[in-house]
Design brief:
globular; alpha+beta
């Protein structure tokens, strides 16, 4: 090999070593973080999964999303994932059945679940209400796709909300709350008047 090739070879080697070093320093992905958390919770999570399966709602949402605690878990120094207490499991089933119907109707296409059960300290840090349904199970926040059909979602809420105790909240057009704790809707100031589903006079 000629002397001129040595600097090129050294540069390639340094580049490869740099790439390996950067890869080693990268933060773990959400999937990796979930697997790490799951390692210490597997028995309880398996029991919850079996319960959801027996109720016919398993697999509607990946467990790595279904067990997300809150958007601000890092800021709040909380666990990224949380298993709801057993007392909350029936409420989670009720809301998951509703979410399943919304998905089958194409009303949550492209939506990502970002917050489910929250323990009280995290709920306070997240800015949740002192009566937040996130603390008792059965409340879920989603990031909607940019082309989400809000009016069809509202039409579903108007048509079936009373019978199903469908609560539908909009933090804005892309951020949505769903629960089954009462037929109601609200908007960015947490009042009915700012809901995207309430017709303006």
């Amino acid at each position: 090999m000629s002397r001129g090739a040595d600097p090129i070879r050294r540069a390639r080697l340094l580049f490869a070593l740099l790439a390996i070093s950067i890869a080693a320093c990268q933060a773990p992905s959400p999937a990796e973080r979930y697997q790490h958390w799951l390692a210490g919770q597997r028995t309880d999570v398996d029991e919850y999964r079996a319960y959801l399966r027996a109720q016919g709602v398993a697999g509607l949402i990946p467990m790595s999303e279904l067990l997300r605690s809150g958007r601000r878990w890092r800021w709040c120094r909380a666990a990224e994932f949380a298993l709801p207490p057993k007392s909350a499991w029936p409420d989670t089933v009720r809301t998951l059945r509703l979410i399943g119907d919304l998905r089958r109707a194409g009303l949550l296409d492209g939506a990502e679940l970002t917050s489910a059960y929250r323990e009280p300290r995290l709920n306070r840090c997240e800015g949740g209400s002192s009566r937040s349904r996130h603390m008792s199970g059965g409340a879920y926040d989603f990031d909607l796709a940019s082309d989400a059909d809000i009016q069809s979602l509202c039409a579903f809420w108007r048509r079936e909300g009373a019978a199903r105790s469908f609560g539908l909240g909009f933090y804005d057009r892309r951020h949505l709350h769903i629960d089954t704790a009462g037929f109601r809707s609200w908007g960015h100031d947490y009042t009915r008047r700012t809901s995207l589903c309430i017709a303006r006079p």
